[in-house]
Amino acid sequence: MPPVCRAQRVFLLCAWILSTFHATAQVQIQTSKESALIHIDGELFTEYHVGDVYRPYFYPVIGPNGKGMTRNFPMKKGVEGEETDHMHHRGVWFGHRAVNGSNFWGDTPDSGRIVHKGFHRLTFNKKEGSFSTSNDWIAKTGETVCTDERIVRIYNHPKFRMMDITLTIKASHGDVVLMDEKDGGMATRLPHTMKVIRRDKKPVEGHILMSDGSTDAEAWGKRAKWCYSYGPVEGEQAGVAIFDHPGNPNHPTWWHARTYGLIAANAFGKGHFEKLSDKHAGDVRIASGESLTFKYRLIWNEGQLSKEQLDAEFRKFAAN
To answer: What CATH number is associated with residue 35?
Structure first.
């Protein structure tokens, strides 16, 4: 057998390194000034955008069936069938319309910005990956209203795409009031084919299911441990759930669950959702120097999960 030349040895070594990396590093995270790219088994799962944005968000989110599980607009325009309402509904995000009077939900010149300060504690391996970030909540006036720290954990789950988000809001610059508002919390905007009702009244096949048994239009403003939306995506059935951890303030949370394709876990909207005369009944206050932590789990699945399956998954999350 002829001897192996130096070039061949280098090629074989590189091939061995690449194959070993692929086999062992099944969750991969690559960060830059603009975003964090997250791959599972070499395939894109999601991208966390932190550059010149009003607030950080995940887009796209690719489900286990390889389909996009969020609306494309406004990041990608001109997709057939997509409506162009609510430009600030970007993928998966956390925000709030009224924090000390500043709007951290909208995308307008009058809105504040949640400004990314950096990625920290980046780790990933065969089973999971994680990173943390720090952010300043800066009002239109330039004043820093508060800060936050986020821990994002992505799992290499055999059945789902699954992500935990732990968010700690810190009253680092004085007292903070997260005011009673319907627009706030942990949210995702869904593919247009998963809507329950289209604005143009054309038929769709999407549905909403909540842990308390509420469905579709009756889900708005209800309190529940989890909210699940399911329907066809590019011709195949799929779903997404948000779980509200039992340790969260005001658990079980209220849900800003809209039939046009929005689900948001909102712990701040008591007066709005329960239609109370006191529109500050749901105000959440954080004293100067103190903090408040929220933890959520999001899962994306192929097919359709039953209430019993979702309850079982919630119990696993609640045990953490």
So the answer is: 2.70.98
